[in-house]
Amino acid sequence: MPLYEYECIKCRNKLEKALTAIEKKPDKKTAQSVVKKYDTIHSVEIVDLDEKELLAQAGERDDKCPDFDFYFDQGSLMVLVNMDRYRFSELIYEKEDEKKVECYCGEKKNVERVVSSFSFTSDLSTNMPKPDLSELPPDVRSKMFISDYIEEKDRPKKNR
Ligand SMILES: [Zn+2]
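Above are the sequence and the zinc ion SMILES. Below is the predicted complex in structure-token form.
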């Protein structure tokens, strides 16, 4: 029985638009506007990794929702987004089952199958990867929502 992974195109588009706006102008105003504009996005944090400085923060993190990290400017700018889940997996027994696939936002049609990046046994609700914030000084980290950065020993082994 295949377990397929799906992504909601509607939710993903909101995220992409938000990231495009942030990349263009990574400041507090943009962070605030995307949190306000896109209902699936709960909070946005923009961190300058070169200066190790929190540039902007907007919205309120929802602990039940996953955090995604994105990097711009050759990796010197990190954007942390806390948003509703838009990637999910479904067990599909027959073709008809695919029609019942539904995103957390209620979207059914604009959902597409993606190549799974999770192992079949992982629990999507608790196993969302967290960004590595260990490089940031404690005073920056303490201002961020995700201050419980991952200890060296708990970090996933990177393929190099
Ligand atoms: Zn959705």
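The beta strands are 3-8, 41-48, 53-59, 67-72, 77-83, 87-91, 111-114.
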